[in-house]
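[agent] plan:
  1. take the single chain provided in the ticket
  2. run structure prediction with default settings
  3. attach structure tokens to the ticket
  4. add a short note for the reviewer (M.T.)
[agent] executing step 1
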Amino acid sequence: DFPTAVSSGVSDADALFCDSWRLSVETANAGPWRTVPARCGASVRAYMEGERYASDSAVAAAESLAFAAQAFASGVGGAMPAWVFDVDETLLSNAPYYAVSGWGATQTSAAPYLSAQNSQCPSPAIRSHGEAISSFLATGLQEFNETSFDAWVDIAKAPALPSSLKLYNELQGLGFHIILLTGRSELQRNATEENLLFAGYHSWEKLILRQISDIGKTAVQYKSERRAAMEAEGFKILGNSGDQWSDLIGLPMATRSFKLPNPMYFIS
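[agent] step 2 finished; step 3 output follows
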């Protein structure tokens, strides 16, 4: 249980609680969790739509680049220095999708993404990408809906996280081999490649997606196995960027791992 905040008003108490909850999530102290607490929906929305999310992401990218430049210059990566990126909420932002349910989880139907003509989404940054979002729907905080998310993936219009795109290009300029390791299914390869190109990413070394043999594996197991395969091929994984701890932990690990913020969902 979290301590009760002492405050002059309920909104102040919620803000304090939700800041602490988000820290607990980012440090993995919260452990597995299924939905954003009901009292934190507005706080998560403010964080994701405001300057803090962009700033936190930019700081993570800057720290990543500082390490990458030093490591590359030292030659510790050998002939095949590699950097691994997750895709969702790391390279691509699914903010237009999560906005319609108050940033807590998902719609139970994909229809708003497939049929809308006029967006009423409150964030200009989201509206500017022209995603098919009919309205900001305060439908309550729900658990992840795979069917509607897959429909969103098929649209292939998720924008880039700006700081991640900048980091990606700078790492390529340094000479890193860029490997994309995502929990998306192999069936989503075409849509994922199309979306990455749409968002400005190009020239990756590999795009690794879940195969039929990976069904039932946790993200930690699946991604650890894929990193082991990379090392067997001769890659030296100097860096790994992801929005989930399950993108980063498990042996073998990168020399340095960089956690991006994500208070919207948890993947084990």
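[agent] step 4 note for reviewer: The longest helix spans residues 51-74.
[agent] ticket updated
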